[in-house]
Design brief:
The protein has 237 residues and is α/β, with parallel strands linked by helices. 19% of the residues lie in helices and 27% in strands.
């Protein structure tokens, strides 16, 4: 059972929303700020044929990598997938479709979808394979390629802090794609680290207003993973 927008766990928050061949946005940058609990619940649901919109495909066994392991993702719309060996294997074997986007273009496609803008023109990608099959138009003497806005059936978001009305605050790197995706889901489901009552967040600090958020779960102690651990060699005396 839910209490307003608050649900007891990820499975409950996603109840009634998941279906085969749906489109899911998953926030985060690398493995920072990913909605890991919600992704695990999608995996447990067994839905297939997912089109996943995310900056990247996580890493092997983490984030969207979990859904790649179970072969639940049919297509990725993303910018960078170089950290995931399983992704490369499935793509090269013809088991996974990929729609690559320049990173800024991907962000703007999501922002446009959330703003109700169906398409826009950008110079990025003109004259490259990115523009293949797309309308290219000359505007003020320069060539631009048309890109479509993106909207998902469900947006999965991770926030640092949120109140029970869905007003959200994001922290550092996790602010890259999560706020954009929060606006571009037909339904937005959020996992928050710190859940507070309305009025406890300074209005000037709110990044995403609660009107965009339909369902919330409290994840107080998420695992903070390091994608690539780099250490300095010890200098011997």
């Amino acid at each position: 059972m839910s209490q307003g927008k608050i649900y007891p766990n990820a499975a409950a928050a996603l109840s009634g929303l998941l279906k085969n061949d749906m489109t899911i946005m998953a926030g985060g940058f690398g493995i920072c700020g990913i909605p890991e609990s919600l992704i695990e619940a999608v995996s447990a649901s067994g839905v297939k044929g997912i089109t996943a919109i995310s900056n990247n495909a996580g890493i092997d066994g983490v984030g969207l990598g979990v859904l790649l392991e179970t072969r639940q993702i049919r297509k990725m719309i993303s910018s960078y997938v170089g950290e995931n060996k399983l992704f490369a294997q499935q793509y090269l074997a013809g088991e996974l479709e990929i729609e690559f986007n320049p990173q800024g273009t991907l962000a703007e496609r999501i922002r446009a979808g959330g703003a109700g803008i169906p398409a826009f023109f950008t110079k990025t990608g003109v004259g490259t394979s990115v523009a293949e099959g797309k309308e290219v138009r000359e505007i003020d003497g320069a060539r631009y390629v048309m890109e479509r806005g993106l909207v998902a059936d469900v947006a999965l978001v991770h926030a640092w802090k949120g109140d029970t009305e869905g007003n959200l605050v994001f922290r550092k790197t996790a602010r890259n794609f999560n706020p954009l995706m929060a606006t571009a889901g037909k339904v937005t489901v959020v996992e928050v680290e710190h859940l507070v009552e309305p009025g406890e967040i300074d209005p000037d600090h709110i990044v995403t207003p609660g009107i965009y958020v339909q369902r919330i779960i409290h994840v107080p102690d998420p695992t903070k993973r390091i994608e690539q651990r780099t250490v300095r060699k010890r200098v011997m005396a």
